[in-house]
Amino acid sequence: MANRFFLPRIFDKKLRKTGTMFTGIIEHLGLVKALRTEGSNLHIDMASSLVPALHVDQSIAHNGVCLTVAALSEAYYTVTAIEETLQKSNLGFLKVGDLVNLERSMTMQKRLDGHLVQGHVDQIGTCLEIENRDGSWVFHFAYDPQKGNLTVEKGSICINGVSLTVVHSSLGQFSVAIIPYTYTHTNFEQLQVGDKVNLEFDIIGKYVQRIMAPFMAQIKP
Predict the structure, then answer these.
(1) Regarding beta strands 137-142 and 156-159, do their DSSP bridges make them parallel or antiparallel, or are they unpaired?
(2) What is the pLDDT of residues 82-130, one digit of tens each?
(3) CA angle, corner 43, sides to 189 and 64, nearest 5?
(4) Nearest to 126 by CA among 146, 142, 139, 145
(5) Does domain 123-215 have CATH number 3.30.450.20?
(6) Of 123, 132, 175, 186, which cross-links 140 as Cys (Cβ 3.0–4.6 Å)?
(7) Each residue of 44-64: b (16+ CB within 10 Å) or e?
(8) pTM for the complete prediction?
(9) 9-104 fold
């Protein structure tokens, strides 16, 4: 029998519910051309070599945030971030001229080179330290553990839309190693200490944590 790619039932349901999934493998860097505020919404004009292949209503992850193409021109496309998205991601910090990691939604025929990513950012993290390892880099990040998220060593984490493996993990902090290809083909090259990043924690870990929470609450210290 030919090999086939099957999603576990829990992910299949989630895929049908959300309509899109990503892998965390960045395709292109987009350039912010213009930012316009309308009420509590932020309209973003993005220039990218992807433009000729796009269509209105298509889903694209921007720094790991799934947004829908609302308008197209020959030079750029437009997406809109609503208030909830701006509160939970770093898109509200964007400036004209910034580079943004872009990934189109996955297809079932695509190799899953990263990990399953929904494009739904859980919270914002802060870059604490950048170590230059003479050919690679180790980035250290902090996040608010009170929001119920966690990392595990050798587990997956999505940072600004980039699928990465956790090197070290502690409460509210973790680190990742960045190879030269990832450094130069994403906006990690522009990241500085103190910058805010979008974090999407591993979907498997989130489901396990949710399932185990009632049982852990019953355990007396």
Answers:
(1) unpaired
(2) 999 999 999 999 999 999 999 998 876 666 666 778 889 999 999 999 9
(3) 40
(4) 142
(5) no
(6) 175
(7) bbbebebbeeeeeebbbbbbb
(8) 0.82
(9) Elongation Factor Tu (Ef-tu); domain 3 (2.40.30)
